[in-house]
Design a protein that fits this description.
By secondary structure, this protein is an alpha+beta fold. The protein has 2 helices and 5 strands; from the N terminus they run E-E-E-E-H-E-H.
Length: about 80
């Protein structure tokens, strides 16, 4: 089973809110998921929260991040490096 870490859309019309979820790659965007590991709210100054321990676990067992989630993670770790 190929596992991906990607965004699942939630929120009302024209006010998106995303959950960072671990899911089987065959599942629909807002369908079943294995675990919810964080949130992303673009309307609140791009508020991004993720459980780094769970993210590290899932990537260590072979879960692939989507390009968008990879970009968000990179942006999160950049200020910490400065």
């Amino acid at each position: 089973m190929a596992v991906h870490i990607r965004l699942a859309r939630a929120g009302a019309k024209k006010t998106p809110f995303y959950r960072i979820v671990v899911t089987d790659h065959r599942a629909k965007r807002d369908g079943r998921f294995i675990e919810n590991i964080g949130t992303f709210d673009p309307s609140r100054d791009a508020s991004f929260r993720v459980d780094t321990a769970r993210l590290a676990y899932w990537t260590s067992v072979g879960a692939q991040t989507s390009p968008t989630v990879a970009q968000l993670i990179k942006r999160l770790s950049a200020p910490a490096a400065s």
